[in-house]
Amino acid sequence: MSALPDITIQEVCPRDGLQIEPTVVPTDLKIALIDRLSALGFRRIEAGSFVSPKAVPALADGNEVFRSIVRREGVIFVALIPNLRGAERALEAGADEVNFVMSASETHNRVNIGMDHQGSLSALAGVTAAIGRRVHLNATLATAFGCPFEGEQHEDKVLRLIENYLRLGAQSITLADTTGMANPKLVRQRVKSILGLVPRDELTLHFHNTRGLGLVNVMAGFDAGAVRFDASLGGLGGCPFAPGASGNVCTEDLVNLCRDIGLNTGLDLEGLIALSRELPSMVGHPVPGQVAKAGRACDLHPVPLRLTLTD
Amino acid sequence: MSALPDITIQEVCPRDGLQIEPTVVPTDLKIALIDRLSALGFRRIEAGSFVSPKAVPALADGNEVFRSIVRREGVIFVALIPNLRGAERALEAGADEVNFVMSASETHNRVNIGMDHQGSLSALAGVTAAIGRRVHLNATLATAFGCPFEGEQHEDKVLRLIENYLRLGAQSITLADTTGMANPKLVRQRVKSILGLVPRDELTLHFHNTRGLGLVNVMAGFDAGAVRFDASLGGLGGCPFAPGASGNVCTEDLVNLCRDIGLNTGLDLEGLIALSRELPSMVGHPVPGQVAKAGRACDLHPVPLRLTLTD
User: What domains are defined for chain A?
Assistant: First the structure.
């Protein structure tokens, strides 16, 4: 096993990237995608979710996906869950880690999970009691940088909910900017505060590029001490309130940025670009990532013959 | 006149945004676009160029554009020029400022301008001699953060060329990342060095979002002391080597970012978003900007009825 990278990127394309797609990607293609991703150097891949198949039909095949993917040594396959039933299904399917999710905004949590905070925290306590230490338990706080219904989320509330997560057995934490409302000033403040509660190796930041700030917020989080980030191949994913806007932070764009500024991710950028270029045919539309279109900055071009501006 | 904004954004959509468009935008639409832009608070608009109409047919109507636009008090209308002939045409048309351009990469300069460095610098000397102080003379160094043919551009060369610009009469400087090859580490270094030669109010940074780093580089430049940036409504523009990739830094995305972190731009964000939403029908295709699709982070949504993840 090589040394830890400077930055750990958890690939979330198979879960957050595909969840909003109108066309359900066939299970065998999903499995092939995850197998190719795990060959490119990721140590963590969010491979699916165990939620209501009525709410997210695109991910109803989580059981088959987790049972069929190649298990590479050193790669942790994560399953998103909203409750105990999801945790039990994830364990049965063989997930290495469950990622419990609740929203900082109680309004958003009611819409998304169908529970108030107390309901979700009780569910988390049930998950801890049932799965004990059999798998790693991560807890995500969604809408941690803003809610599309409530607006700003006060830092005191966010910190209190994180304290509840830790008290109830969460072993690591994700702060999610679910609908792309974060900005670099807020990210710096919030990360500095959270790092008073959670060591940096147990904190993941999850940003969306909805308003063009995905990589700006990653850099702000890194400046404030964060070293773990979610990203999605091709920037796949999205926000239901921003049709046409970009989705998750794009994995290969982030890896390219890290490479250019000298941060090691342990990932194969050329392999990521090649795989990302296959995504449009898989999902049936162009994807937002830029580097797969433009190539790396170090990829030089032949000198063309053309009319000059002074002809 | 109100106090100077924290950040000055020069709008370049009418020049750099439209220059690469395959469909020539009719002159009257261009004039209407510029008039609407100048009503939204810009102090600087690059309204056209005086280059070979064979090389850039999309901007062949510069004379009519400059003669027809509404001249609002306090708004400087800039014309890009590659040589003395362009400067003379710009002056005849009534440009308030000429923006001379040469590339840091001599290979790129030969392809783009048809001259080596010595040829371009002689042209600049001719421009200074001919136009004297009749209009403000800005000088742009293109490919200042990397060249698609030569690759990295050494800082010593960049600094030496800027010194030549200043010696030959340039009153302000633009560093341009012509094909989106900059990264935040390089931007910080280069801006700190250049600010040893040029006061911050006379330095503009021009970034492209080709590899998703436009706003990341703006923030890095700002952190290093820069306060003037080029941007293009809708993120219009592009790079001939990256088909499908984003263009210039998107004006409304940058203004939205500034707003969220408390920096004043003096610009009307809602007006910019409304105008940007008209661009696709003007150019015949979607444009890359995100905020015009997603709305501002402070624009809240009604709570929907939907299936929850735990149904």
Answer: 8-294 (3.20.20.70)
